[in-house]
């Protein structure tokens, strides 16, 4: 198994950050196997979605609808509504595993690997890529 940790600057507001290029660079020298992507944070997740056509903004809107930033959350440190960020990984998991064939991630035409970070309190995130040979 080979592993690498990257740093992603997400800024101070909710974001869906496309990390497909970084993942593709990581597996480029490999053949067949599995790419495992993991976010070691309690308030972020990973989604395989289309980006650039509004789906990334739609996802943030859906998160706000499902998990509003109100003061109803028992987990109360951080910015207003931060408790909802700690619930997010129950819906958008902090991991994804994808097939790699001939050094390329076998994504569909419109699919991208995205870091989903609704928590503006932590502007820097880490993502771990691990490759398991087939």
TrEMBL record:
**A Pfam family that the UniProt record links to this protein:** YjbQ
Q: Which InterPro entries match?
A: UPF0047_YjbQ-like, YjbQ-like_sf
Lineage top rank: taxon: Bacteria
Q: Which family does it belong to?
A: Belongs to the UPF0047 family.
The name this protein carries in UniProt is Secondary thiamine-phosphate synthase enzyme
Organism of origin = Actinoplanes couchii
């Amino acid at each position: 198994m080979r592993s690498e940790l990257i740093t992603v600057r997400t800024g101070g507001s909710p974001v869906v950050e496309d990390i497909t290029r970084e993942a593709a660079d990581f597996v480029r020298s490999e053949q067949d196997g599995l790419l495992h992507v993991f976010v070691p944070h309690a308030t972020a997740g990973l989604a395989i979605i289309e980006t650039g056509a509004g789906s990334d903004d739609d996802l943030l809107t859906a998160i706000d609808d499902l998990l509003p930033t109100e003061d109803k959350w028992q987990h109360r440190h951080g910015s207003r509504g931060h408790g909802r960020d700690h619930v997010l990984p129950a819906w958008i998991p902090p991991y994804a595993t994808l097939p790699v064939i001939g050094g390329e991630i076998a994504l569909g035409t419109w699919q991208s690997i995205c870091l989903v970070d609704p928590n503006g309190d932590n502007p820097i995130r880490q993502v771990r890529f691990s490759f398991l040979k087939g």
